[in-house]
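User: Reviewer 2 asked us to show a designed sequence for the structure in our supplementary figure. I'm pasting the structure tokens here. Could you produce the per-position amino acids so we can include them in the response letter?
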């Protein structure tokens, strides 16, 4: 037997339909979840005296044999079996005979696939979190070593104010922290068992959904069976969470690409995670961050694809929903390898502190401090102080100086009431440390942020 027997369909289906209709070549990814779900189901059936202990044990032993066959590479996946559920059921029938047919009592492929897919997604949420925590540890280590490393903070990709490199890295730690929280929240919200809903309306058998849910590690069972078999919100959530994660990875990748260019020279990627040009032997290309940036569009497409599949479906299950898995499998694999290689690339990256320091002398990064000084100590309205500061910056440009290099006498040409303390205030490190408000870039504030993230990582890893 290769397909579900039907009283409605009398003749064989066309080979082309078999190829078009089958999902076995991609949903075989769910073999472990399918076997786990079936084992829990037959345990419940036996507990409720729907099948006997002998049938239960034969089915479980047969399923474990199939799992080992698959993991040892000895199992044959055949397109004639249509999907992973029928493939395993057909092989089980070959192994143990007619008792295999009892396994499907009180369930449908509708709730079976909903269970398998949900288990897969819930587990991948946690696996991605673990990978992100490893990335966070690497970023935190970089931050800890670069509290005193000055670099230009930018807006509009123009030099704006002096910050430290640790502070910049901590901005990405904040992004990835939110990503971790999204994956964790999705796991908590969607840890609900669909099994026992059958095709769409429940079952007349005296099942125990709560018992089966507990065996599978769910917190509870779903409320409405009609909704449950057609619900793919959990799949959309992981696709969205991965899309936001990859957007954050892409932003960091873009900065690494810029920083590693000759124009910046802030970092150098290791030879291990760089490539050479096919024609220019002097080049060292940042292919890892470029590919990470490119793969972001791929996961966006998977999210939009599933949203489009689901947007017009009537209740309950429809065959369209077979298109729910490949995009999720692809996005999960993309996210996992992307986090792993980003972690390694960043960990092995060299930080060019001198180049960062040199770049802070471009763009008059402490000009805002001068405007604030004129406002606070010389009685200027801020807009007037802003205008005068612009004139002083123009003077500095004409004399090939950064505003932080101006002497007291040069500044007093524009405002005689300025005191000697302005010279220290305009020094770049002092400018950075002056921004000591909560969440700011000062050394003290940066240390507090590092302490916060260290505590958070330690608690998250428990």
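Assistant: Here is a per-position design you can include in the supplement:
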């Amino acid at each position: 037997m290769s397909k579900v027997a039907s009283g409605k369909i009398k003749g064989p289906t066309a080979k082309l339909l078999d190829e078009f209709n089958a999902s076995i070549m991609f949903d075989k990814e769910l073999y472990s979840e399918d076997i786990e779900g079936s084992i829990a189901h037959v345990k419940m059936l036996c507990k409720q005296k729907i099948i006997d202990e002998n049938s239960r044990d034969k089915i479980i032993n047969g399923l474990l044999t199939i799992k080992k066959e698959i993991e040892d590479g000895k199992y044959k996946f055949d397109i004639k079996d249509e999907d992973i559920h029928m493939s395993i059921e057909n092989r089980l029938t070959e192994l143990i005979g007619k008792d295999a047919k009892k396994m499907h009592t009180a369930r449908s492929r509708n709730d079976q696939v909903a269970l398998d897919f949900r288990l897969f997604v819930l587990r991948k949420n946690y696996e991605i979190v673990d990978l992100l925590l490893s990335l966070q540890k690497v970023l935190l280590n970089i931050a800890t070593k670069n509290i005193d490393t000055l670099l230009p903070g930018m807006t509009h990709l123009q030099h704006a104010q002096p910050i430290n490199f640790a502070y910049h890295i901590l901005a990405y730690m904040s992004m990835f922290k939110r990503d971790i929280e999204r994956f964790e929240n999705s796991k908590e919200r969607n840890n609900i068992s669909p099994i026992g809903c059958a095709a769409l309306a429940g079952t007349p058998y005296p099942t125990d959904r709560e018992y089966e849910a507990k065996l599978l590690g769910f917190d509870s069972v779903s409320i409405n069976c009609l909704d449950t078999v057609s619900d793919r919100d959990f799949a959309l959530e992981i696709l969205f969470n991965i899309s936001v994660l990859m957007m954050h990875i892409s932003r960091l990748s873009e900065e690494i690409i810029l920083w590693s260019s000759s124009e910046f020279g802030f970092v150098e990627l290791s030879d291990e995670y760089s490539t050479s040009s096919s024609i220019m032997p002097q080049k060292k290309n940042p292919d890892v961050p470029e590919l990470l940036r490119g793969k972001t569009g791929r996961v966006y497409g998977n999210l939009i694809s599933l949203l489009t599949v689901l947007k017009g479906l009537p209740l309950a299950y429809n065959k369209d929903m077979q298109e729910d898995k490949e995009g999720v499998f692809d996005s999960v694999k993309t996210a996992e390898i992307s986090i792993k290689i980003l972690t390694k690339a960043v960990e092995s990256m060299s930080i060019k502190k001198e180049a960062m320091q040199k770049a802070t002398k471009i763009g008059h990064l402490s000009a805002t401090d001068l405007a604030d000084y004129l406002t606070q100590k010389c009685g200027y309205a801020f807009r007037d102080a802003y205008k005068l500061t612009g004139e002083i910056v123009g003077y500095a440009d004409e004399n090939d100086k950064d505003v932080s290099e101006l002497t007291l006498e040069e500044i007093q040409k524009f405002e005689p009431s300025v005191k000697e303390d302005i010279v220290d205030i305009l020094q770049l490190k002092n400018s950075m440390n002056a921004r000591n408000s909560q969440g700011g870039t000062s050394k003290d504030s940066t240390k507090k942020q590092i302490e916060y993230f260290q505590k958070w990582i330690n608690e998250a890893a428990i």
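For the response letter, you might also mention the following. The first strand starts at residue 150 and ends at 155. The mean pLDDT is 95.
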